[in-house]
TrEMBL record:
Annotated ranges, domain ABC transporter: 10-233
InterPro entries linked to this entry: AAA+_ATPase, ABC_transporter-like_ATP-bd, ABC_transporter-like_CS, ABC_transporter_ATP-binding, P-loop_NTPase
Keywords: ATP-binding, Nucleotide-binding, Transport
UniProt cross-references to Pfam families, sorted A to Z: ABC_tran (PF00005)
GO molecular function: ATP binding
The protein's name: ABC transporter ATP-binding protein
Lineage: Bacteria, Pseudomonadati, Pseudomonadota, Alphaproteobacteria, Rhodobacterales
SMART domains in the cross-refs: AAA (SM00382)
PROSITE patterns: ABC_TRANSPORTER_1 (PS00211), ABC_TRANSPORTER_2 (PS50893)
Signal sequence range: none
Length: 297
């Protein structure tokens, strides 16, 4: 089935943005369908936040164009269906989360589902306290609730869990997966690879303002088919060179595109390995591997 650009939550082509001498974003293309979550990855300064700002209508691109459900970013029609986490400094500090959320819901023209937001974002003890004096993690919970208060069909989350404790991070993952499973579209930037992998079906890796790797995570995995072998050896024994294994301080680790052949050869050569594990490569290592190879899925 071919989706038209107005069916897509995001359709962006050739986005570019320069700040003085810095080409923050150059030629970014993105498509995101409802019911999909996209993880934007990249080092500090790669251009992720600038890309989000253009998709939210907060920055005007120098070149290229984007549509949000077929509407220009920042237009009333696009904003109606879009949620995003505000920066903590944007929250007035003399009001309570209940007041902020109720006001924001009113702006979206939806009933404030305060009880659901309290449950989803752990706001029980906070909901009627003034936000002045909230910790970073407590502010972040309010900001996340604000992203979802308007019953959006698309949410932009820029490093949503920074400052959250691990229980709140886990709860956020469950909530985000539920949102996407019910047809929501989500764009997430994060430096937590496991968070991206837990929530997102697709990734776009941005480097110096350009997309250097993009696609569905399962397709990227299937294409690379890299497996990590972990094993122990008796002290003073090292694996054969052909395996390319390295010791990580605890165990020997080797990456292979053909684990069957590698294992047969280890057995044939009577390598006395123990506690063998076979695991798919973590997303971070997979991307590193693909980029080193210069592969473009
Ligand atoms: N308002 C601005 N004025 C000048 N330069 C800017 C501005 N905003 C961003 N930049 C520059 O554009 C580049 C991309 O920044 P951006 O914030 O998009 O990166 P990022 O991938 O979100 O980084 P991080 O992971 O650190 O949040 C950086 O070199 C940054 O210094």
């Amino acid at each position: 089935m071919t989706l038209h650009s107005s069916d897509l939550a995001i359709h962006a082509r050739g986005l570019a943005k320069r700040f003085g001498a810095v080409q923050a974003v150059a030629r970014i293309d993105l498509d995101l369908a409802p019911g999909e979550a996209l993880g934007l990855l990249g080092t500090n300064g790669a251009g992720k936040s600038t890309t989000l700002a253009m998709l939210m209508g907060l920055r005007v691109p120098d070149a290229g164009q984007a549509l949000v459900f077929g509407h220009p970013p920042g237009s009333p029609a696009a904003r109606r269906w879009t949620g995003a986490t505000p920066q903590a400094r944007d929250l007035p500090d003399q009001v309570t989360p209940r007041e902020i959320l109720s006001y924001a819901a009113q702006r979206y023209g939806v009933p404030p589902a305060i009880d659901r937001l309290i449950a989803d974002f752990g706001l029980g003890d906070l909901i009627d306290r003034r936000v002045a004096g909230f910790s970073g993690g407590q502010m972040r919970r309010v900001a996340l609730a604000l992203a979802f208060v308007g019953q959006p069909r698309l949410v932009f989350l820029d490093e949503p869990t920074s400052g959250l404790d691990s229980a709140a991070q886990d709860a956020f993952r469950v909530m985000a997966r539920g949102y996407v499973a019910q047809g929501g579209a989500l764009v997430l930037t994060s430096h937590h690879w496991d968070e991206i992998e837990a929530i997102c079906s697709s990734i776009a890796v941005i480097d110096r303002g350009e997309t250097v790797l993009a696609g569905r995570i399962d397709a990227i995995r299937a294409r690379a088919r890299i497996t990590r072998l972990g094993f122990d050896l008796p002290p003073d024994l090292v694996p054969p060179l052909w395996l390319g294994a390295r010791h990580d301080g605890a165990r020997w680790q080797a990456e292979t595109a053909d684990s069957d052949t590698a294992l047969r050869r280890m057995v044939a050569e009577a390598l006395p390995f123990a506690n063998l594990t076979l695991q798919p490569l973590e997303l971070k290592d997979l991307i590193h591997h693909l980029r080193q190879e210069g592969t473009r899925p």
